[in-house]
Amino acid sequence: MSLAALNEAPSGPQLLTPVLAAGCQGVVPTASQVAQIGRRAAQIRECPPTELYDLLTASLCGRHPDLALQALHDLGLLAELLPELDATVDFSQEAGRRHKDVWAHTKIVVWQSVPSPTVRWAAALHDIGKVPTRRFLPGGRVTFHGHAELGERMFERGPLRRIAFPPAVGQRVAELIRWHLRPGQYDGSWTDAAVRRFAREVGPALDDLLNLSRADITSKRPGKRKRCLRQISELAQRIRALAAEDRKPKPLPAGLGANLMAALELPPGPHIGVLRRRLEQLCEAGELEGGREPDYYIEQIQTRELLADVEIEAAPKRRRR
Hints:
The protein has helices at residues 3-8, 12-15, 17-25, 31-38, 49-60, 65-74, 77-81, 83-86, 102-112, 117-125, 130-133, 147-157, 159-162, 167-179, 192-202, 206-215, 222-247, 256-264, 270-284, 294-303; strands spanning 135-136, 142-143. By secondary structure, it is an all-alpha fold. The protein has a two-stranded antiparallel sheet with strand order 1-2. A hairpin with a 5-residue loop joins strand 1 and strand 2. The model is unreliable at 1-7 (pLDDT under 50).
């Protein structure tokens, strides 16, 4: 965008042209553009919300989303469009440690994230809840308790109302902001039930959430970075494995053990488990049908003489009182 164009027709959408150039082409706004647009930054509010979404999304999904964010800030447009994000500029996560600046961290996360609208928007806004939740503790520690949940509410009350997000995109961005810490809390001690609960809770947002979590790893320590990435990959692998297991049809009907004991006059004991495992193996090998009635499996045990080499343990006698 030329200065002449700005002088002749300073409309809202035109003010975002340098941001689009930064995000897609890596062209940083000139000092003249910064000064000229900065004086007219408030006019960006005249831009239709649908155009705001389209232009900002195109900028964030380009090859240089970090430059797009910086251009928004330098041009004074970030404070007008996303004041929640503008508040993170020069906002430190740790007392006296500038390299822990939330704004710098956010730009790295956006740059590292996959170029999808939901993930890029969530990457840009995932830490906006840190500003109102920061608390300093004795010893120099800093906490941000509840910043993910508050960040989701801030997104819904602010950016979601100013910018015309498609409903599905807006909902997914809100979910990603709320859940962005969850994958990083995973460790190998999670039970299969816990992994299933996590996958069930996040539902269709799972892939986007894992992609956001990978991008959110910005540690400069190679060992920590590898460890965090490995944990997320392990979580993803366990979710896939459990999902595949759950999709498998259960070959044997529930309560088959009781049916076997009644029909074959067997006492309870380990031999019932042996019979079940043999039936399961035959089902997996395709020699028996899965999901049939108990009588089918009882007949197969008798026909195939599956009891022939099974050691039957007598039921223990009850002590008289």
